């Protein structure tokens, strides 16, 4: 793997030097490809276009991110920003590369979570859009256009991860392939209308299985905190190492989102039926609500309190999108019609 890592470092250097003027664009793209964006951006946008597709996005995002965590624990994988220093291969000729605020993620590198979750979630989006376009136009050419967008999105997100030294190229490729497979498989069975017990069982099951795997690996003498130590050691700025990028944060997010999805469908089975204009208004208000919920500062000490509040935050996200905001809009527009 050493030769693969070395080539990846030189590729990142070349990419940074050649596209330095597009630095802001790469940072925006890597932000949009963050697994968190699937829950906070893609989910509400998709939900108000198609309820089934929105539920599928949240379902696929949670399961694919959980599997990404499991794969990372089992496959390990270095990250470029720490491997440059740890390898000691660049003492005489150090690469001309720099780090950025989203560079210093603390989990192992293989496979790329950004690429994997993006590939899985966006497959739901483009396949739904492709089916819709074909149903309306019966044009194979027009219905194939979303899949070209899919390839472009994956290429852009993967390139951004290489640019900021968060991943090696092969980690992006592996993540994209795994995500594509998961998107195809998971989108075939969408848990729309399933009972609350199903989602509660899924949430608890994902949490307990991950904790059991973690305990088992520790029992075998495998220190799963190795990547956190390296991230803290080699990150350019200590404040760039954040608790919300830790492996357990993604696990808590997935469990919270699944429980929230179950609760939302329990409170309002079938969802609110809204015309297009109220839907657009619901989307705008929901997006603003999720933005402010996401920006709420959480105490990082003690970590248990952080994870609990982080869990609550993502339990609330589906409630805001599926129940609270559309319910309020329905109430207001219904009263207006009656008046």
Automatic annotation (TrEMBL):
One Pfam family per UniProt: PAP2
SUPFAM superfamilies, sorted: Acid phosphatase/Vanadium-dependent haloperoxidase (SSF48317)
Keywords from the named record: Endoplasmic reticulum, Gluconeogenesis, Hydrolase, Membrane, Transmembrane, Transmembrane helix
Subcellular location: Endoplasmic reticulum membrane
Domain annotation Phosphatidic acid phosphatase type 2/haloperoxidase: ranges: 53-187
GO molecular function, one term: glucose-6-phosphatase activity
Enzyme Commission (EC) number: 3.1.3.9
Residues involved in substrate binding: 79, 161
Transmembrane regions: 56-76, 115-135, 147-166, 172-190, 197-217, 305-332
GO biological process, one term: glucose 6-phosphate metabolic process
Membrane topology: Multi-pass membrane protein
Keyword Transit peptide: no
Pathway: Carbohydrate biosynthesis; gluconeogenesis
Gene3D superfamilies: Phosphatidic acid phosphatase type 2/haloperoxidase
Gene Ontology terms: cellular component: endoplasmic reticulum membrane
Active-site residues annotated for this sequence: 114 (proton donor), 167 (nucleophile)
Highest taxon of source: Eukaryota
Family: Belongs to the glucose-6-phosphatase family.
Protein name: Glucose-6-phosphatase
Organism: Parambassis ranga (Indian glassy fish)
Lineage: Eukaryota, Metazoa, Chordata, Craniata, Vertebrata
Name of the encoding gene: g6pc3
